[in-house]
Amino acid sequence: MITNTSLEYKGDLYPSKIVSFEHEGDSIFFNTDNKVILKVTILRDSLIRFRFTTKGYFSNDFSYAIDKTQLHGYNFLELTEEETYFQIRTSKVKCKIQKADLRLSIYDLNDLLILEDELGFHWEESYEYGGNIVKMSKSSKDGECFYGLGDKATQMNLKGKRLENFATDQYAYQKDQEPLYKVVPFYIGLHNKQSYGIFFDNTFRTFFDFCQERRNVSSFWAEGGEMNYYFIYGPQMQDVVTTYTDLTGKPELPPLWVLGYHQCKWSYYPESKVKEITSKFRELKIPCDAIYLDIDYMEGFRCFTWNKNYFPDPKRMVAELAEDGFKTIVIIDPGIKIDKDYWVYQEALEKDYFCKRADGPYMKGKVWPGECNFPDYTNPVVREWWAGLFKELISDIGVKGVWNDMNEPAVMEVPNKTFPMDVRHVYDGNPCSHRKAHNIYGTQMARATYHGVKRFTYPKRPFVITRSAYSGAQRYTSSWTGDNVATWEHLWIANIQVQRMSISGMGFTGSDIGGFAEQPTGELYARWIQLGVFHPFCRTHSSGDHGNQEPWAFDEEVINITRKFVSLRYQLLPYLYTMFWQYIEEGIPMLKPLVYYDQEDTQTHYRNDEFIFGNQILVCPILEPNAVGRRMYIPRGEWYNYWTNEFSTGGREVWIDTKFDEIPVFVKAGAIIPKYPVQQYVGELEFDELTLDLYFKNGKEKSVVYEDAQDGYDYKKGRYSFLSFRTIGKEKELIVQLHKEGKYHTPYSKYKINLIGLPFKVTEIEIDNEKIAFDKIAFEENHFLIVDKEFSELHISGE
Ligand code: GLC
């Protein structure tokens, strides 16, 4: 196999035959007669770890990615020995390990082959660095598809592609450009209607080849470290993704305002400019919850300082913005300016917290402030110090969130755009070079930031966003897709990237709406906003080099479209919050590519554009100029056009007409979609009713609504409200059953029910078996009020 490494190729080595094995609890060790050991650990029935060493012993087992709280025990494990292989059986899968060469194959319990080694584990010794280049190849079946891997700017289905994981500051990247900012060495394979996952937990530079080099082979390899991967059995993609997300960890809930709209630019300054922007949002009635300060708020780009000419009294400004409903978020980069009069630099120098070159000097590199040193966030002591630095920003000044950038780490004016590979890192007690620490540097920075922001924000919830990330970063931070460009192609990329991040465990992601580099036309901006409001993180950002990118930088029509779509997002906040809850509770991705939604339908396997927002809303952006509609695939099932309420059945590609102020949006039949009134910011209004849009289906459907105090941690003590609705529609009848959980009392007292698509004229309504007079519930044209939200069954009948 050819590798893309710069290292000299010395030839591959392979395990030889198994000579003995040991069974210890949930693990089995297979020893070969050339010092290779394979350790198989059954973590769950459908989650198996395969770890190889070539040294005759295993080094310390350490991972930043794995959520330690999730790593326990198995339910069932049966080991049998046959003539040519060993077999391990869980209650979901069987794994055969060949005695001759350690090659593996995995089957479901009906003996259907799920995954099989081609050459299996092999390696190349790396004389220059020590250790091995570790490699794995698997046979790939015809028709097999591949998904996942984080922020890749390419088609959803990765079949036929080779991808590289090395966190890189990739300004104005292009379609198919590799590598990008994030590293998620996790993919999903799908064939024979069965999904499985592979998580290759190795922080060195890694590569994945999905049948590009050889048509029937998929492979992955790393420039160092161990062949250490987790196999996850589906068979549904949902099982794979939720197990992976469980393994690498889930976040806490963000405060609800974070799910509102954010406005950003490089940079808004001075204070008067910031206020001009925020006031304009209120004047134009475009909802907005957060305003960002990019690097120019600092004194000479020194983190944790303020430029007092631009911002003479940040505390007062932040408080005044807060009175108008705006939360202030500031950027913090890793590069600390080398300046002996700068307190952060002095402290880090005194305490010896900066990264060092192999021979001792501090790692020095240029970023915005000029020459910088860089904290070693892989040192827990440094992380603790870094967390403490946020005290003034958060506790005293009142900043509500922190934006971590340039943490790939990015270095300017050097060919490799980052640290030299000899830089040393503590790696939490497993000292190593930058070759191993590079890909997790950004995550460890975001982790330290998260702990700091959380400490000083408590009892409220923190907000952190990062550009670089490795698997598991979702426990601490949200992310955005980096420096994109204001082109139609980038709108296409953004749509796929955010979906892909969603099925890669890191769903709390968005793109720079409108594009970071260059300037969008009004039409492109409008089309981007129309997609962006359906992304978990929703922020306009731009470099500022090419003009303004506030909604009013465009014409009246674009302003109106922005208002319409951002307002829709604010109406859908309870729906969005519920999807976030399902993500933190069960690891369910907030956006679902069509293949995730219906893997059995092969029509979905190569779709890129359409996705399911939450569980019941189908969205398809317009990705071309001058569009009067588009072709799209409506997945199987029954759907209502959101704008016209027209009913259609899916499982087919159709043409949908759209006006400039619409994109195709459909709601699943049977769904109940909860809505709040439009607010200019979260918490602006007190309201007494929750709107429930009920889309009739002849059949059954379940819908849920999660709510809580919208901030703080009481939800962890059971103070939340969880409504599960079951709708049962018949020819002349509709029944809605409501089941409630949780100790939180939502402040509103009524439900406003909108009946959509009802095939009969309502003649009678019963609530909890009691017939209700229409005037008591303000019944009018298929909408009415339920005054007592404690009901458990609603019965609507008609003729
Ligand atoms: C990087 C970031 C961008 C930011 C700029 C200045 O390019 O990706 O979002 O505005 O730096 O801080």
What characteristics describe this protein?
18% helix, globular, 799 residues, 31% strand, Immunoglobulin-like, 4 domains, transferase, alpha+beta, binds alpha-D-glucopyranose, 12 helices, TIM Barrel, disordered N terminus, nine-stranded antiparallel beta sheet, nine-stranded parallel beta sheet
Brief overview:
The protein has 799 residues and is α+β, with helices and mostly antiparallel strands. It is built from twelve helices and 51 strands. The chain folds into four domains: 230 residues, glycosyl hydrolase (family 31) (Immunoglobulin-like, Sandwich), CATH 2.60.40.1760; 193 residues, TIM Barrel; 78 residues, Immunoglobulin-like (Sandwich), CATH 2.60.40.1180; 113 residues, Sandwich (Immunoglobulin-like), CATH 2.60.40.1180.
- Report the uncertain regions: 1-6
CATH homologous superfamily annotation of the largest domain: glycosyl hydrolase (family 31)
Strand content: 25-35%
Q: Characterize the main sheet.
A: 9 strands, antiparallel
The name CATH uses for the topology of the largest domain is Immunoglobulin-like
Ligands and ions found: alpha-D-glucopyranose
Strand order of the largest sheet: 5-6-7-8-9-10-17-16-12
Tell how many strands the DSSP assignment holds. Answer: 51
Level-2 CATH architecture of the largest domain: Sandwich
- Average pLDDT metric: 96
Number of helices: 12
Number of domains: 4
GO molecular function: carbohydrate binding; hydrolase activity, hydrolyzing O-glycosyl compounds; oligosaccharide 4-alpha-D-glucosyltransferase activity
Domain DUF5110: 689-757
Family: Belongs to the glycosyl hydrolase 31 family.
Organism: Flavobacterium bizetiae
